[in-house]
Design goal:
This protein is of the alpha+beta class. The chain has 11 helices and 12 strands. It has one domain: Malate/L-lactate/L-sulpholactate dehydrogenase, NADPH binding domain (Ribosomal Protein S8, Chain: A, domain 1), CATH 3.30.1370.60. It has a 7-stranded mixed β-sheet, with helices on both faces. The protein has a 3-stranded antiparallel β-sheet with strand order 9-8-10, with helices on one face. Strands 1-12 form a two-stranded antiparallel ribbon.
Amino acid sequence: MAETVRVKRETLEKFCAEVFTHLGVPEDEALASAQVLVAADARGIESHGVGRLWRYVNGIREGVMQPKVAPLILRSSPLSLVLDAQGAMGMALSKKTMTMVINKANKIGSSFASIRNSNHFGIAGYYTEMAAKNDMIGICMTNTAALGVPTFGRTARFGTNPIAFSVPASQGRMFTLDMATTCVTRGKVEVYNRENSPLPPGWAVDTKGQGTTDAAQLLEDMLYQRGGGMVPLGGEGELLGGHKGYGLAVLVDILTAVTSGGDFGKSVMDSAATSARVCHFFGALKIELFRDPEEFKNDMGQLLDELEQTEPAAGCNRVYYAGLKEHESEQESHKLGVTLSTKVAEQLRGIGAELNMGIPF
């Protein structure tokens, strides 16, 4: 078990925002980016949290991420929006885009947007919950560097390509499904590599298409596209439904990249320094299109209650619905501070020292 420290959420957000502003990101966008990044750690999703800050630092320095650029509107209608991000910071731009999608949906009932030429945007569930807080069903997807191996293949041809949905329920609860379409995310593999731990069997295959538990070798092989990668959601082959995860991953490429005219599949490549430029998709549907929002949320509340009250299997303590663990973790982080591994905390201190910044933790 990795050693951890607790840091106040506001302290962590302020530190990350200051790193971004130090590198030329406007203050409002720096804060927005920091909030999304820290939200991942607050929810217990360390694979997408501040452990990735170095990727943004390097991305800005390498010119992959542009701290002061306005996205180009390619198409716009009352229902839709297509943007060329021109290398903008993915997190701040995604918050602005989902806000625009919500505003359009408020007027017409639903709205959708796709973005090309953007950058890593953190956790997809952050944006879907923006819509859910406005009595809408939120939808979000992004493609990523090619890290996933097609069913029966041995070479990566699609990203971890997450899909997220958020639906509001009574008592302020939400059903938030935020999942990769591969068995695991690259960020999770990075966590295992950082802690020098072997990967669980069944997550990934090597350059021959055989199962591997070597995180370091897998990351290197994927970076240089030598072969190997994560298997689709469901696992290897068709027996456990891996072909279904494969299909979902390709669908994400279609909605994010093909609709926006951006890069997809094997054309999306990370570098040793930072993440690849990627494409996103956002959607919002007003619940009012279907029925009274309060009645809807009451029924959603009953559905979530039924799921949570399911009798646990032998050896298990409780049953969860999608998003419950993360929301409970966020509540705990609010009280006790955000949990970081000591290695990530040291990494952040190193970034702060390099930038001649004060380090408050």
